[in-house]
Every structure is written in C-alpha cells, then in structure tokens.
Amino acid sequence: MTVWFLIPLAYLMGSLSAAVIVSKLFSLPDPREQGSKNPGATNVLRLGGKKAAAITLAGDAIKGLVPVVLAKYLGASPDMVAAVGLAAFLGHLYPIFFGFKGGKGVATALGVLSGFSGWVGLSVLATWILMAVVFRFSSLAALTAAIMAPAYVWLILPSPVLAGAASAMALLLVSRHRANIGRLLKGEESRIGSKKA
Question: Would you call 1 helix, strand, or coil by DSSP?
C-alpha cells in the first residue's frame, strides 16, 4: 500500500494554526498581531491565559503526532515516517492557509518526535520542563530541547534517518529563534507568564 499521500496530508494538517483558531474561538487578539506576534502557545498564554494556551499547545502537538502515527500504522518505512514528520513540521512553519507565515514549531516538533517514539517525546518534554522551571524562559527551554532531540532519537531508537529528521527540525527551530537568542544574550527576553505589549 502506498503512503505517499500522507506527505501532503501531513503538510495540510501542519498548516492548521492552533494559535489562530483558538484565539478566534476565545475572542482573543490575533496572536500574529499582538504580543510577540508569534502564533504559538507561549504568546497565547500572554494574550489569553492558561486554558487557551494549553489547547493551543495540544492542538499544535497533535497535528505533528497524528500523521506520524498514521504512517507507522500503515507500515511506512523510516524514510517515509521521517518525511511525513518533516512535512507536518514545515506545514506549521509555512502554513498554506495563513500566508505561509507560521509559528516557531516547538509543539509540532514535540508531536512529531513523540510519533517517532513515546520515550523520545517524553525526554524532549522533560528537558523543556526542566529548563523552563529553572530559568523561566520558554525560548531557552525550546532551544535546549531541540538541540538534545537528535541525541535522544539516536540513543532511544536508534535510527539515522529519524535522527536526521530531528536534526533538521532542530536547525529550523534554532533559526526561528534567532531574535529570541539575541534578546537572551542582551537580557531582554520575556519570562514565562510575563505580559508583553
């Protein structure tokens, strides 16, 4: 059975911006225009509180998880599973439904990695939580978790192609956080839970 159809399906699923959809449902400001102007859970937390942020986080993670799990269920090769995961991730970064202007991809990457392996997902999530609790910078937690993800994939699975996909996502995540890195170095980055004009 061919599973090539899963690649465009994964991209289309990734293109559904949970932050924008949730913000509209909760009558919140457009996260692309307010706060950090990033359509992600952290900005929704600033603009609308914990409930809206939690739903956003879950939605963005699920759209990365489901296509990968479906690909594995249909017996896809590791190469195809990696391609499907990357397609969902790229859909979030460059959503066709929202002018190709998406979020940074942290939650969607977590969903993809959890699809690769539940233990990988838990390891990445634990890394994010640890860094977030200690330093209270969402961006620093995301960057650390992203950088560690390929190592977790390699140690837990191990699979060169899936580790390669994790590395590609990590590089894109670091690239999407360039402004955050600059603010972290200057001591100007907002902490988790703070309000941002």
Answer: coil
DSSP codes of every residue in 157-195: S--HHHHHHHHHHHHHHHHHTHHHHHHHHHT-PPPTT--
Q: Where are the alpha helices (DSSP H) in 74-137?
A: 78-93, 106-116, 118-135
Q: Are residues 105 and 63 in contact, defined by beta-carbon separation less than 8 angstroms?
A: no
Can you tell me the distance from the alpha carbon of 104 to that of 175, in angstroms, rounded to the nearest whole number? 9
Could you tell me the CA-to-CA distances from 128 to 122, 138, 149 in Å, in that order?
A: 10, 8, 11
Of 137, 138, 133, 114, the residue nearest 124 (C-alpha): 114
In contact, 70 and 50? CB cutoff 8 Å: no
Q: What's the half-sphere exposure (Cβ side, CA atoms, 13 Å) at 42?
A: 24
Distance of CA 10 to the CA centre of its chain: 14
Q: Crossing angle for the helix pair 18-25 and 41-48, nearest 10 degrees? A: 20
pTM, rounded to two decimals:
0.94
What pLDDT, on a 0 to 100 scale, did the predictor assign at position 194?
Answer: 67
Query: Percent of the chain scored above 70 by pLDDT?
Result: 97
Is the pLDDT assigned to residue 37 strictly greater than 50?
yes
The two structure tokens encoding residue 82: 């990696």
CA 7 from chain centre, in angstroms, equals: 17
- CA terminus-to-terminus distance, the chain: 51
